[in-house]
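Researcher: Hi, I'm a grad student and pretty new to this. My advisor asked me to get structures for two proteins we've been looking at. I'm not sure of the right format, so I'll just paste the first sequence and hope you can take it from there.
Model: That works fine. Here's the first sequence with its structure tokens right after it:
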Amino acid sequence: MNRRIPLALGVLLTAAALSACAATQAAPAPKPTSTRSKQPAPVVTTAPSTPEPEAPAAEPTCETIISPGTVEALTGQGWTAKAEEFRIGETVLEGGLMCMWSDYDTPSDHGQMYAWAPIDESTAVTAQQHLVQEGWVRSVEEDRTYLTEDPAVALATDEDGYGMTYEFGDGWVKFADTKQSLLLIEWP
């Protein structure tokens, strides 16, 4: 049998396939015929695009203000959260949330507290003054202000001796049952 025929047939089929592809390509669109009018063509200007406003952040929940790993650990031991308004003294912090995590099916004094709220500078100053008057200890580290309960009266403390602590940042405040636990709050 002659091996040249299959090779020639392959070349012929390839050429036919290429010409078929070229035939299926769209022909260039015909140029529109021009009709003259006495009015000039309108000038199209492009206005600078304005960015879409950002969607507001979701509302904080007990499951979103703390890290996912913390939620998993707490729910894994059968705990659930109860949400309350976040207050400092008599001041309710609008848009804030206080979460009390515990096993509410079993009577116990064990639980965890986490809170977060937006706060303006004036309210932050007033809240800090109130806490200091109530005996809370104020400290400043870098750009954060901490107010922690007096260690002499704290029910529970972290390994550094801090009990319940507020952390004030730029436009927000956090609260946890120990200063170390503030690290678990990740909102927003």
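Researcher: Oh nice, that was easy. Here's the second one.
Model: And its structure:
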Amino acid sequence: MKNEAIFEQAGQMMAPVRAMNEVAVEQAEKLVKLQASAFQNYSKLALDHWRNALKVNDAESMKDFVSAHRAYVETVTEKATKDANAVMELGNDYVAEVQKILKDSAAKAGVSKAA
């Protein structure tokens, strides 16, 4: 009976750690998906742009390419900004979840803010 109580206490003490690890794995999965999607998007943009560069063969096609290049740079900049914001949001979500776990754990343990 004593061993069961010890294991139960240990499980209760490790619950917040387990919960934080679950949050970390979930956030890591989201980050990997975001990175994979970004890699695919940027690769497609770059290859398309490269293909367009190969089509340059006279002054008019060069003018078209330079015009398209501006749009390409704007698109990449917008996507990079959006992706950076998404990564920041993932980080903020992670911090909020961990803080909630710690707060709940402290409340269950009877720890107050003054302590």
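Researcher: Is there anything I should tell my advisor about the second?
Model: You could mention this: The chain has two helices and no strands.
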